[in-house]
What we know:
Elements: E1 18-20, H1 23-43, H2 52-56, H3 78-94, E2 102-103, E3 112-113, H4 124-134, E4 145-151, E5 156-162, E6 170-173, E7 178-187, H5 188-194, H6 198-202, H7 213-219, H8 238-251, H9 265-277, H10 280-290
Antiparallel strand pairs: 1-7, 2-3, 4-5, 4-7, 6-7
Amino acid sequence: MPDSQRSPEGDSSALPRVLHTPRSHALLSESWAQAEEAKRMERAGDDLQLPHEAYAAGAPCRACGRALLGEPTLGTDEESLARIDADNAEFRAEHTACNMGVWRIENNRAEHCHLCCPFPPLSPTQRDELRQLLYPSSLRIDRSATWRVELTCQHVETLTGHSPRYVEPTVQCTECSVIRGVVKAVRIDDQAKDGDDSSDIEGLQSDYQRLTDEQWSWIKHIVHTQDGPRRGRPRTDIRTIVDAALYKTRTGIPWRELPAEFGSWQTAVRRHNQLIASSQWDEITRTLAERDLPQ
């Protein structure tokens, strides 16, 4: 989820309850994750990366079969060195099309291709040291939160044992059996503590219905429409603008993600701001609230 939706570090009173991601961003994260998963499945059973245990035991490179540790590349006599240099020259000639150069391990003269041969794996100690250098607080992450997330497919999943501040951008949908992007997340354990989890959780799946003629009749007197001829493009109907603003409020989406049926989102923003500035929007929402209508 975007960083802009996260709470300031260390401010426990500002922990997020609801996180939103633009649908376009969620779909992009989804496509990337699906592509990575497809590549991983394609390589399954044919992983060229050695486990550290195999590497430490002296196993050769899985890509080229050349030694990574130990003999015969530790020889120092002229005959051994000449043989190793000739072998390296032949290896380079076979990989000229890679255009990535070669690498080798200290105390081992055998060369490996940057493109074809994966680097030796880090040891567990090295991984911990690197993790602490890059993410000093990674070992102290609080993973006690429970989130309910709405996916791009409109299915809802419950995630437990997650960070209280953010949700990963993609989740495996159990109904679709594929990875999907997250468009909305509600932290339900935090909501439950306050006893106020109904409104946001219900809002995970948009159930907004456009105003009926009867409902519009209750509020149409509040807004003022322009009469007479007008130059330029036809003006977007004010009822559509009100519908768009109510939809945006109900779903929590960014204005840019407003469905096309409501017309230009820029126009909707501009005219909604005009309604707010004139206090008409307050009167509209108050009238609807008094009649117990969802907003």
